[in-house]
Amino acid sequence: MNGLLKKEEEEIKEVGKRIKKRDFSGSEGQEIKNSLFTMVTSLVTKIGAVIFTIIIARLLMPELFGLYSLTLSIIMIFLVFSDLGLGESLIRFVSRELGKRNKSKAKSYAAYFLKIKIALIFITTFALIIFSKYFSENLFKKPLFLGLIAGALYLFLLGISEIIEVLLVSINNFKNLFWKQTIFQISRIILVPILVILGLNYSLSNETNIALVILGLAGACLISTLISYFSSRKKFNFLKYKEKELTQKEKQKTKKFLISMPSIAVSGLFFGEIDILLLGYFVLTEFVGYYRAALSLVGGIIGLIAFSSALLPVFSKLNKKKI
Fold first, then answer.
1. Cα distances (Å, whole numbers) of residue 270 to 40, 68, 76, 78, 280
2. Which residue of 5, 39, 125, 166 shows the fewest CB atoms closer than 10 Å?
3. Maximum CA pair distance of the chain?
4. Predicted confidence (pLDDT) per residue in 49-108, tens digit
5. Does residue 66 belong to any structural domain of this protein?
C-alpha cells in the first residue's frame, strides 16, 4: 500500500515538473495540457454562469426568470436532438485518423458526421418553430411563443458553435476552446443585461422581454463562434485534403458507435431538464425561477473538473497496449 502511494506521489510530482517546464511532449504531455485547459475552461464557464445568473435573476425577478428558465430548457432539449452524440463520434474517429497522420480519411469522417449534424440542426430548428405555439398556448399555457421563436435562432447558432468545438477538440486545440468559452461568457454578461434593461425601461411585455434575453444569448453565441472560427480555421488544415471514400466496414463501425450515443445523450437530457419542464407545467413561473436560480448557483460551485473531453482525442490515437 505504501509503495502504491509513493508511486502515485512520484507521478504527481512528475506532472508538476512537466507543467513548470511547460513540457507537453508525447501522449502524457498532451493529456496534461488538455486537462489543464479543460479545467480552466470549466472554471470560466462555472464562474461566468454564476455571475450571469445573479445579474439576470436580479433584473428579471422571479416570474420573468422562471419564464426564461422554462424557455431555455425547451431549447436545450431540442439542442440535444440536434446532436445525439454526433460530436463525440466525430472526435473519436477524426482524432484516431489524425493520430495515424491519415488526413484524407480524417476529412472523410468529418464530412460524414457533419452532413448528418447539419441536417439535424435544420430539422430541430424548424421543429422548434413549428411546436413553439403549441408549447406556449396548449402545453405550458405561458407566454413563451416569442422566446421560442427567438430560441430557434439561438438553437441554430448553438448547433454551428458545437461544430467548431468538436473540430477544435479533434485536433487537440483546447486553448482556442478556452478563448471561445471566455468570449461567450463575457459577451452574454454584457449583452443580455443591456437588452433586458432596455426592454424593462420601455415597459415591453413579459413575452417580448424573454425573447430579448434569448436574442442576447444568440448574439453572444454568434460573436464567440465567429471569433473562434476566424482564429482557428488555419488549424483545420486536414479539411483541405481530398476525401477518401469510407469502406462498408468503416461505415458499419461508425453506425455501431452512433447507435450507442443517443441513449447517453437523451438520458443526460432527461435528468438535466425534466425537472424544469415538470415545474413549468404544474406550478407558477416564479417558483420555477426560484428553483432554477438556486440550482444554477449550486451547479456553478460543483463540477468544476471535467476530464472526459480532454482525454478522448488523446485516447483515440493510442493502441490497446498504450491505453
1. 27, 19, 11, 12, 15
2. 5
3. 69
4. 989 999 999 999 999 999 999 999 999 999 988 988 888 888 888 988 888 888 888 898
5. yes
Residue 227 cell numbers, joined: 471569433
- What count of other Cβ atoms lies within 10 Å of the Cβ of residue 187? 20
**Residue 19 located in a structural domain:** no
Structural domain for 252, as ranges: 39-314
Please name the amino acid found at residue 17.
Answer: K
Using left for φ > 0, alpha for ψ between -120 and 50, and beta otherwise, residue 198 falls in: alpha
pTM: 0.85
Is 308 part of any domain?
yes
Q: Which of 243, 192, 197 is nearest to 219 (CA)?
A: 192
CB atoms within 10 A of CB 250: 16
The C-alpha atoms of residue 82 and residue 215 are separated, in whole angstroms, by 19
| Mean pLDDT in consecutive groups of 10 residues from the start of the chain, 323 residues | 56 62 63 78 88 93 94 93 86 86 88 92 97 95 95 97 92 90 97 95 93 97 95 87 81 78 69 84 90 80 54 61 64
Q: How far is CA 199 from the centre of its chain?
A: 28
Angle at 278 between CA 275 and CA 282, to 5 degrees: 140
Could you tell me how far CA 79 lies from the centroid of its own chain?
Answer: 9
Residue 74: inside a domain: yes
C-alpha cell at 233: 480555421
Q: Is 176 helix (H, G, I), strand (E, B) or coil?
A: helix
Grid cell listed for 155: 438553437
Number of domains comprising the chain = 1
Alpha-helical runs (H) found in the chain:
2-21, 26-81, 86-99, 103-134, 145-170, 174-201, 206-232, 248-282, 285-301, 308-315
- Region of 25 please: left (phi>0), alpha (psi -120 to 50) or beta: beta
d(CA 11, CA 13): 5
Distance (Å, whole) CA 214 – CA 216 = 5
Among residues 196, 233, 248, 154, the alpha carbon closest in space to that of 65 is found at 196
